[in-house]
Design goal:
By secondary structure, the chain is α+β, with helices and mostly antiparallel strands. The chain is built from 16 helices and nine strands. Strand 8 (327-331) and strand 9 (337-342) form a beta hairpin. The protein is flat and about 85 Å long. Residues 420-433 have a biased composition (Gly residues).
Length: 450
């Protein structure tokens, strides 16, 4: 029986594959062609909808050639996306672009129309013309052309970095909304309510090949630990790269609880690279990559970085309103702790979102101003427990600005928050003018903070 990790990787392959759906469309087109031929023999076609053998052959031949040309055109557009992503965006974005259902649907429709028309061609003879099939083939071409226009419109608009950043942000927030508790459908305990102590594990499970942790079958881990009366500790977070031979799981409890260590190892999926399936930080990683690439000397487009910061701020606000834990202690139905999964805290998300943009973009006034407005907004909108991390990032930004801008006036400009970078009136993160006594990081903050 295939393990959970195998099924998970297979599902990832199917979702990111660009050939499976077109091949299914090819098969469906051939089957529909046979059905149209059978139906043509049973249904009477009005005289006005009948074709001569020469006309039908010409129409179907033109459709076959057009579908092949359109397939090549869409593939060419896909190659352009790959070039753009690797050159000006982030290679990590390709992991999300492969999932685009519209492109797969268009390819499947073109392939299906090709197979449908080609199937009809073999039935054309001096006295036999599949009139119904030729009409349906013409309708399929019309639908294909409409879908091509929709695809071109989507491609033209979504090829912009800001549109890609918006899609990545929404994907990350959607994944963030699915918590470990919801995925595992089991009880989530407080960290002090259970879990293994700091004693040595009774048994460890090591990985043989290594790879990036792509996902966990949390429910399966809980069932396995409950069945063997032990506690399983996942040694690495989703997104971490695990070298060959490293500890994958720690088993606390009775020594030798698992006779076959490979069975619990099959509940952790490893792959060649990270995936967003259970890793919302991967989406933030892609956003930071796009902003950093825009700030590279080869691209030198700080305005794009500012636009990406808009979506990084949206993502960080979503993270800040979520319940984050350093580790998740999961229990079985009886309330006994069974699985410990490492989590990712607020500070780690914040560092991932702003560190590289600060380091690479400190030389741009508008990036510094937009980044300060971002941090000011987080300072005003986050709970008090999460504000110290934001203040540390503000202090790091001040240090970077002081090193980069020794002149007093330019330093003042760089330390003024502006939601547009330059041209936004120098507003702070909370919408207050820079230096206002009611600015969120000033002494007169409405929430009474310091």
């Amino acid at each position: 029986m295939p393990t959970w990790s195998f099924r998970f990787r297979l599902g990832q392959y199917v979702r990111t594959s660009l050939w499976i759906l077109p091949v299914l469309g090819l098969a469906a087109g051939a089957l529909l062609g046979e059905a149209a031929l059978a139906l043509d023999d049973m249904v009477g076609i009005p005289t006005g909808w009948r074709y001569t053998a020469t006309t039908a052959t010409g129409v179907l031949t033109a459709i076959v050639g057009a579908m092949v040309a359109l397939l090549g055109f869409v593939v060419t557009i896909g190659v352009l996306v790959v070039q753009q992503a690797t050159g000006t965006l982030s290679p990590r974005y390709m992991r999300l672009w492969y999932r685009n259902p519209l492109q797969k649907t268009v390819l499947a429709l073109f392939a299906g129309t090709f197979a449908f028309a080609f199937t009809l061609l073999r039935r054309i003879g001096p006295d036999t013309v599949p009139d119904l099939g030729v009409t349906l083939a013409g309708l399929a071409v019309a639908v294909s052309l409409v879908m091509l226009l929709v695809y071109l419109n989507r491609f033209v608009h979504d090829a912009r970095p800001v549109a890609i950043a918006d899609r990545v942000c929404r994907t990350g927030l959607r994944v963030l909304g699915v918590s470990v508790q919801a995925q595992g459908r089991c009880l989530l305990l407080d960290e002090g309510d259970g879990g293994p102590r700091r004693d040595a594990p009774a048994q460890v499970v090591r990985t043989e090949e290594g790879g990036a942790v792509q996902g966990l079958d949390v429910a399966g881990l809980v069932r396995a630990a409950s069945r063997n009366d032990c506690v399983l500790v996942v040694a690495h977070r989703v997104g971490d790269f695990v070298p060959p031979g490293a500890v994958l799981l720690e088993i606390h409890g009775t020594p030798g609880a698992f006779v076959e260590p490979r069975r619990p190892a099959g509940l952790v999926a490893l792959g060649a690279e990270r995936t967003v399936e259970q890793d919302p930080a991967f989406a933030l990683r892609v956003l930071a990559d796009i902003a950093a690439r825009a700030l590279s000397p080869a691209v030198n487009d700080p305005t794009t970085a500012v636009q990406v910061l808009n979506h990084i701020e949206t993502f960080l606000h979503g993270v800040g309103r979520s319940e984050l834990r350093g580790r998740h202690v999961l229990a079985d139905r009886d309330g006994r702790p069974r699985v410990v999964v490492p989590g990712r805290g607020w500070e780690e998300y914040l560092e991932l979102g702003v560190t590289e943009v600060r380091e690479y973009g400190v030389g741009s006034l508008q990036v510094c101003r937009r980044l300060r407005a971002l941090l000011d907004g987080l300072l005003a909108g986050m709970p008090e427990a999460r504000r110290p991390a934001v203040r540390r990032q503000l202090a790091l930004l001040d240090d970077a600005v002081d090193r980069e801008y020794p002149e007093g006036f330019r330093r003042t400009l760089a330390r003024t928050g502006d939601r547009q970078g330059i041209g936004g009136g120098g507003s702070g993160g909370g919408g207050f003018p820079s230096g206002s006594p009611t600015r969120p990081d000033g002494p007169g903050r409405p929430d009474g903070g310091t």
